[in-house]
Design a protein that fits this description.
Layout: H1 3-29, H2 36-47, H3 53-66, H4 70-82, E1 94-99, H5 110-120, E2 124-129, H6 139-146, H7 154-164, E3 166-170, H8 171-174, H9 179-188, H10 194-197, E4 208-212, H11 219-229, E5 233-239, E6 251-257, E7 260-266, H12 286-297, H13 303-319, H14 326-339, H15 342-353
Parallel strand pairs: 1-2, 1-4, 2-3, 4-5
Antiparallel strand pairs: 5-6, 6-7
Helix pairs in contact: 1-3, 2-4, 3-9, 4-11, 5-13, 5-15, 6-12, 7-15, 13-14
GO biological process, one term: L-tryptophan biosynthetic process
GO molecular function, one term: anthranilate phosphoribosyltransferase activity
Keywords: Amino-acid biosynthesis, Aromatic amino acid biosynthesis, Glycosyltransferase, Magnesium, Metal-binding, Transferase, Tryptophan biosynthesis
């Protein structure tokens, strides 16, 4: 092929690229949603660095203004998973528990501590997370403060999971394409679809997921998104203003059970627990939160802190088929915490992750 022919093809390709982005933006401005396929193709362009900042800004704001639907979220998440660094393991029925953040509550690191306890309870936990964005201490900050290596290679991370039942996948390491959107996200200073993608793009593609959202209106679309992505069992929760199962009030739940979606409300009494105020769960920086987590794992946590872990791990046991009910799961976790056995799991994770 001649140089001129190659140049003509490149120009044609660029024109088609620009036209597809322009079409998508016009479609969104007209209040018409994108298909899963359209969304995935657009996010492939973003992840591969093929979209200009102006195009990306227009796309993100148009999506936000219309309101993202599950097909758009699922297409974006599928693209990010496909463009991520691969994670392979021989362990099965993988699970994750995390939240979108952004609820402004600044609690202790509940889901991260719960993931370690869940591993001690026999669940294969693949925690996918990052440093703090909207809180005092993100999952990576806590794990680092506990002495866990947060920047394991995929092979090291797989070995850690297979040896201990827990591993951590550091999001920036697995999603290099996200850097192409960082400038625009920083400049926009507003929530976009990226703020809800984090919990959906675990490279391990967990079958089981407990996912907290900052807005109750996200519960159903996030459940539909996980169904599209192939998740088998999940609970999407919003607890009285927080992206957690609440101890201070009711929790909105949308449960995914092998393709079926059900909505209901949970209260602490459904776990045989008392109510606790949100103030009793207030966290601080990584070292304070690490000390709280250590106390919980050693069986020395206070009642409110223990209860926060119990509801999360009970939900994971229920979703994983290791508990008949939430109350059964809660009793299992209570016994586990009292034994201090979870501390053995943490020590194993520290040793293997740094090996």
């Amino acid at each position: 092929m001649s140089i001129q022919a190659k140049q003509n093809m490149n120009v044609l390709s660029a024109n088609m690229h620009n036209a597809s982005i322009q079409t998508a933006i016009e479609q969104l401005i007209s209040n018409q949603s994108l298909s899963y396929t359209q969304s995935k193709a657009l996010f492939d362009e973003i992840m591969q660095g093929n979209m200009s900042d102006i195009e990306l800004s227009a796309l993100l704001i148009a999506l936000k203004s219309k309101g993202e639907i599950s097909d758009e979220i699922a297409g974006a998440a599928a693209s990010m998973r496909e463009n991520a660094l691969a994670f392979n393991t021989t362990s099965n029925q993988l699970a994750d528990c995390c939240g979108t953040g952004g609820d402004g509550s600044n609690t202790i690191n509940i889901s991260t501590t719960a993931a370690i306890v869940a591993a001690a309870a026999g669940i294969n936990m693949v925690k996918h997370g990052n440093r703090s964005v909207s809180s005092n201490s993100g999952s990576a900050d806590l794990l680092k403060a506990l002495g866990i290596n947060i920047e394991m290679t995929p092979a090291q991370a797989a070995n850690c999971l297979e040896q201990t039942g827990f591993t951590f996948l550091f999001a920036p390491q697995y999603h290099p394409g996200v850097r192409h959107a960082m400038g625009v996200r920083t400049t926009l200073k507003t929530r976009t679809i990226f703020n809800i993608l984090g919990p959906l793009v675990n490279p391990a593609a967990p079958e089981v997921q407990l996912l907290g959202v900052y807005d109750p209106n996200l519960c159903l679309p996030m459940a539909q998104t996980l169904r599209t992505l192939g998740t088998k069992r999940a609970m999407i929760v919003h607890g009285s203003g927080t992206d957690e199962i609440a101890l201070h009030g009711p929790t909105t739940v949308v449960e995914l059970n092998n393709g079926n979606i059900n909505e209901y409300t949970l209260n602490p009494s459904d776990f045989d627990l008392a109510n606790y105020s949100l103030e009793q769960l207030t966290g601080e920086g990584p070292q304070y939160n690490a000390n709280v987590s250590l106390a919980i794992l050693q069986g020395k946590g206070n009642e409110a802190h223990n209860a926060a872990i119990i509801v999360n791990v009970a939900a994971l046991l229920y979703l994983s088929g290791k508990a008949q009910s939430l109350k059964d799961g809660a009793q299992q976790v209570h016994t586990l915490l009292s034994s201090g056995q979870a501390m053995n799991t943490l020590n194993a994770i520290i040793e293997v992750s740094n090996g």
